Amino acid sequence: MKSRNVNTLGLLASLGVGAVLADTGSAPAAGVVHMDIQRRNAVDGPVVKLGRRSSSSGTVTETLENSINEGAYMANVKVGTPLQTVTLQLDTGSSDTWMVYTGSTICQGGGCNDGSFDPDKSSTFTDLAKGAFAIGYSDQSSAKGDYFNDVFQIGGATLQNMTMGIGLNTDIPFGLVGVGYPSNEAGVSSGQIKEYANLPVQMYKEGLVNTVAYSMWLNDLEASAGSLLFGGIDTAKFSGPLMRLQLYPTSDSTTVTEFAVALTSVTAVSKSGSDKLGSSAFPAPVVLDSGTTLSFLPDDLVQEMYKEASVTLDDNSKPVVPCNYINSKGYFSFGFGGAGGAVVNVSMSELVLTPVGNYTSGANKGQTACRFGIETVPSTANPSYVLGDSFLRSAFVVYDLVNNEAALAQTNFNATNSNIVAFPSLSATIPSSTPAPNEANIQQGVVSATPTSYPAAAGFTSTSAAGRVQARSGEVGGVMLAAMLSLGVGLVSFSML
Ligand SMILES: *[C@@H]1O[C@H](CO)[C@@H](O)[C@H](O)[C@H]1NC(C)=O
Ligand SMILES: *[C@@H]1O[C@H](CO)[C@@H](O)[C@H](O)[C@H]1NC(C)=O
Ligand SMILES: *[C@@H]1O[C@H](CO)[C@@H](O)[C@H](O)[C@H]1NC(C)=O
Ligand SMILES: *[C@@H]1O[C@H](CO)[C@@H](O)[C@H](O)[C@H]1NC(C)=O
Hints:
Elements: H1 10-14, E1 33-40, E2 72-79, E3 84-91, E4 97-100, E5 126-136, E6 142-154, E7 157-170, E8 176-178, H2 186-189, H3 199-205, E9 213-217, E10 225-230, E11 232-234, E12 238-246, E13 260-270, E14 273-277, E15 284-288, E16 295-297, H4 299-309, E17 312-313, E18 319-322, E19 331-336, E20 342-347, H5 348-351, E21 352-359, E22 368-372, E23 374-376, E24 385-387, H6 389-392, E25 395-400, E26 405-411, E27 420-422, E28 433-435, H7 457-461, E29 479-483, E30 491-496
Parallel strand pairs: 3-8, 4-7, 12-28, 15-24, 16-23
Antiparallel strand pairs: 1-2, 1-10, 2-3, 2-6, 4-8, 5-6, 6-7, 9-10, 9-25, 11-27, 12-26, 13-14, 13-15, 13-19, 17-18, 18-22, 19-20, 21-22, 21-30, 25-26, 29-30
The chain binds 2-acetamido-2-deoxy-beta-D-glucopyranose (4 copies).
One 2-acetamido-2-deoxy-beta-D-glucopyranose binds at residues 149, 161, 163, 196.
């Protein structure tokens, strides 16, 4: 693991980190801005087709495809004078906030149900850089247009002069709120513009929060809403210690531009045992990315997890499990930052996702199959591991863009109370957090052993009660074959609902 890397380059440094600007006087009393985010299933609304943002040239990028049925987190915002309402997808994996232009082709004939933006109807609109905004996502969708400044309202807070993109030409019917590092702004990677103050930075500059940091609580898969809290943490939304981790610099540079932390262990736990899994990739840099619905981990590790949870692959090589595994009491315990570091337990009930079809033969004949929330990353020289929403729902995550740290704790599902603690000043460390004590001692390239047997596996497949997942009707018909993976069971045929 590289040593602590304080962001001394670029825009955050120009804000005067560690210098005289650390003044709390001008911020409003609470120093936080709270924003509700709604979870939406693609089957209930427009198709969510966003994947992870392609990285800039020089690094190998895999296509990490989001499952279109697993939904996304959306936030309501208002733009312009008078305010126009739009609903945008929240994304920690990109850094621009942009909306679809009302006059764009995709909005013709009522194609933009989430709202769009019409600059001609805003008296405060200023076009900044014509043609400079261009962003591409790994599923080949994209948006092109201009950067502009205007009034932006989110979570009841108003920013007077926010820089945003407008998608004049796009195949995505809604925009995004990208809350990543300014150095990762699309127009910066392409050399079109210099870094600008994106949403988290502008909130600081306009005095709404005391530092450039926020925390995210997605809540349960069964719940429809979570929240993003700029400038603070909410101690009622997690249990156990909130552990601080350093963020890895991007592999081809010394600068931190994304939220990658060190995954150092995974243990499968059930009533029949506890198996410490191994991976040649540990410590694995994993990006905490809310814009990705599934999680993508090292192949050797994922194969062990599939053995534990009896995950099989369908004809499209997508992992599935019987939907009633949602009642399994088994869980995976993810460890970060070495011994004694952050721990987040992810139960099977959070990993068993939407129904995709029925098994028509084999041990699970007659049962409904559900998508499993963890997949492998194709092995390449420079793999990019991601912990997306299927992991993030079980965690309370704090992103500190000034100190280049993240903090993780076990989430408190369905917490209704709130105890908000604001960061006191610019560059203050994450409130109520403790550093992972052995992070400096993490050894790269020490291969952790694969278990020789899997005693926990039996406990993963024992389920009781009826599955609470209701199979959805109206999906594609047809017949698929699902191969049982590594279990010697042979082929199982599988039909779509
Ligand atoms: C708004 O921001 C732009 C840069 O994004 C800057 O050039 C302009 O001066 C700002 N306007 C005000 C009123 O602060
Ligand atoms: C959270 O609430 C939802 C209903 O809104 C419920 O279905 C779910 O089981 C709850 N989760 C937990 C962990 O209690
Ligand atoms: C997570 O799992 C580990 C291993 O079983 C356990 O020791 C720990 O108490 C669990 N944490 C929480 C918050 O449940
Ligand atoms: C799939 O199985 C469920 C019960 O598990 C049943 O209600 C449903 O009709 C089946 N669907 C098809 C297409 O066979």
